[in-house]
Recover the amino acids of this structure.
């Protein structure tokens, strides 16, 4: 390795979820080689910070509202990219893109050990001063930006391993603050993503929002029963019963019609 392994390093954390930013910052604050840590909660702030601070390392959330990671780097107009560590909550497609291009990534929810390994690798790349990663980073971001229209699998990380769920196996989804809970019959799984963000990547022909905190797989609905004030009681194949919100009356009314 060439370069100074003790070089002071500046870092930018780009993530729209405050808990994700705080988790990364907590680890970075304990590293004596990290002398500056900046944060950006969206793409616009990320572009401004990249131009102003020119960080050595960026922890980049790939899927952000309004501006993707690819668009951030393109709009920043940097001649030389910093070391990029991608941070993602899903999905199989993005992970395959990272691995094919040999680009580092951290899967949410991440462990302290995994995050620490990513930081050490990033520091080594900064010290080497000959990364050759720019083309690979841009290739990954462009591939993800042009990715599949809808999710087909979801990565669910536990303390010991990561499992992959076929999206069609999910019966219904509920919001749990900065997480969502996936219900697959008798099992439940948590992933760190907001319900709005996940909803934007699901096939609307299969997954319908019936409440501000509930999404159902229409292929796994057993029955729909009208209630008072425009609400419906939705019974799933598993037997779980969900009550729709009044503002989602039209979506439920469409479900119970044959469309001809």
């Amino acid at each position: 390795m060439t370069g100074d392994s003790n070089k002071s390093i500046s870092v930018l954390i780009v993530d729209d979820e405050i808990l994700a930013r705080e988790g990364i910052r907590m680890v970075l604050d304990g590293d004596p080689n990290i002398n500056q840590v900046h944060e950006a909660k969206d793409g616009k702030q990320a572009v401004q910070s990249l131009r102003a601070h020119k960080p050595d390392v960026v922890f980049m959330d790939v899927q952000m509202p309004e501006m993707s990671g690819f668009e951030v780097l393109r709009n920043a107009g940097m001649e030389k990219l910093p070391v990029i560590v991608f941070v993602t909550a899903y999905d199989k497609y993005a992970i395959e893109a990272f691995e094919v291009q040999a680009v580092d990534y951290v899967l949410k929810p991440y462990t302290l050990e995994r995050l620490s390994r990513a930081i050490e690798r990033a520091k080594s790349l900064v010290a080497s001063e000959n990364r050759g990663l720019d083309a690979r980073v841009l290739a990954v971001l462009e591939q993800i930006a042009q990715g599949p229209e809808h999710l087909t699998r979801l990565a669910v990380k536990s303390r010991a391993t990561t499992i992959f769920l076929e999206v069609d196996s999910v019966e219904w989804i509920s919001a749990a603050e900065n997480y969502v809970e996936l219900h697959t019959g008798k099992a439940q799984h948590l992933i760190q993503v907001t319900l709005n963000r996940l909803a934007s990547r699901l096939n609307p022909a299969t997954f319908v929002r019936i409440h501000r905190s509930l999404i159902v797989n229409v292929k796994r609905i057993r029955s729909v029963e009208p209630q008072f004030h425009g609400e419906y009681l939705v019974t799933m194949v598993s037997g779980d019963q969900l009550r729709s919100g009044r503002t989602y009356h039209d979506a439920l009314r469409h479900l119970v019609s044959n469309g001809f």
